[in-house]
Design a protein that fits this description.
Number of strands: 0
Strand content: under 5%
Number of helices: 10
Largest sheet: none
Distance between the termini: 32 Å
Amino acid sequence: MTTITYSMTDTAAMLRRVLTHMLRNPFVTLLTILGTPIILLLLMYNLFGGAVESGGTARLSTAYIDYITPGIILITAIYGTGTAALRVNSDMAQGIIARFRSMSISRASVLQGHVFGSAIATLISISVIIGLAFLMGFQPTANLLEWIAALALIFLYVMAIMWLAVGIGVASKSLEAANSVLYLLYILPFFSSAFVPTALMTPVVALIAENQPFTPIIDTLRALLIGTPSGDRAGIAVAWCIGFMVVGYLLARTAYNRNSNR
């Protein structure tokens, strides 16, 4: 067996371990990720949908449920980062990682198992959100190629922020410290184009929304699903996702090698 084959086998074993832990409490895992996004989807649509749509096509060129669904999809993934950071930080604190280091397994496989396991749970949660949006009247105009591109962007984005979450979880000395860092991820989408166009925001908020990572990702996903204009946002969105992934991977590997014995 080659080194790559050994690494893939070890990663599969670590993934099975993470999925086994999730399957012991599947509803808790999914509700932790889905709770807030479902509330946001129902709340924003039922409380503010009519008010926003009453402004006519000058404000929104599409139904409000179509407009907010891409943003809720990204927010769902963000709430999956908390459980990812929790699991890996717990492994670090309990010394399980130190035991793995003493075994003849690929070091990268431990981190990859956490990333892939959390990504699977998050993608399932996103599927639930999309299904709920359809029940509420979501009507995407995407063709087959646009759906493929949208799903590819969602997958890239989920993998990117899961690497970032695992990196934060490994580097943090406690779960509280990890949550403090992740709080910025939780709050940033509320200062993006997730719920209203940046043109309707006050100048200061619009400036923040236009120059943060989630707005171009949301705008690109929205353009793919419902055909709204995105300009050059697609390249910026992919660049942000790759940047998240690289930073998360480097942080995770560095912190893992430094702190595995704590």
